[in-house]
Design a protein that fits this description.
Largest sheet: 8 strands, mixed
CATH architecture: 2-Layer Sandwich
CATH topology: Alpha-D-Glucose-1,6-Bisphosphate, Chain A, domain 4
CATH class: Alpha Beta
Strand content: 35-45%
Order of helices and strands: EHHEEEEEEHHE
Number of helices: 4
Helix content: 25-40%
Distance between the termini: 32 Å
Structural class: alpha+beta
Number of strands: 8
Radius of gyration: 15 Å
CATH superfamily: START domain
Length: 159
């Protein structure tokens, strides 16, 4: 199992960052390889579930994400099955109107990708993807900027 750990400080209130990140449709705006988000269901505490299409190594993978743990405005754990089995641990903390976000990811590289590409190469790509995701979130929260997302990745399916 591969692991990623990244963190970022954002000059935006904790509730603003948390509320943005617990709306799965927003992932399309900040996550370059997220191609589609559909069938979204969410609760007031930030828990949610949705179907997704993600592009890794030139291959599209379909999966389903569901929140397995929520401590509102502190921690969200999202498990993904099918496609790319993974668990995302999002830890939020706020101080003086700013937010620190820590992202830990445990994931399994799909075997059909390992046949095509070397594991160290894929791991490096995924590390960079996590950095880009957090940087895009920071820009969106601090500057109100929308991330540049390829046209093919701008599709949100109806519920």
């Amino acid at each position: 199992m591969a692991k990623i750990r990244k963190s970022i400080s954002i000059r935006a209130p904790l509730n603003q960052v948390y509320d943005f990140m617990t709306q799965p449709e927003n992932l399309l705006e900040i996550w370059p390889s997220m191609v589609e988000v559909s069938h979204v269901a969410r609760s007031a505490d930030g828990s949610h579930s949705f179907d997704w299409v993600y592009k890794m190594g030139g291959i599209h993978f379909k999966g389903h994400a569901a929140t397995s743990e929520v401590i509102q405005y502190q921690r969200v754990v999202v498990k993904n099955d099918k496609g790319i089995p993974s668990t995302f641990f999002w830890a939020y903390s706020g101080e003086n109107g700013n937010t620190k976000l820590i992202l830990d990811v445990d994931y399994t590289l799909p075997s059909r990708l390992l046949d095509k590409l070397a594991e160290p190469f894929l791991t490096k790509i995924n590390e960079r993807e996590a950095e880009t995701l957090l940087e895009n979130l920071k820009n969106r929260m601090e500057l109100g900027m929308k991330a540049v997302v390829p046209k093919a990745a701008q599709h949100v399916s109806p519920r």
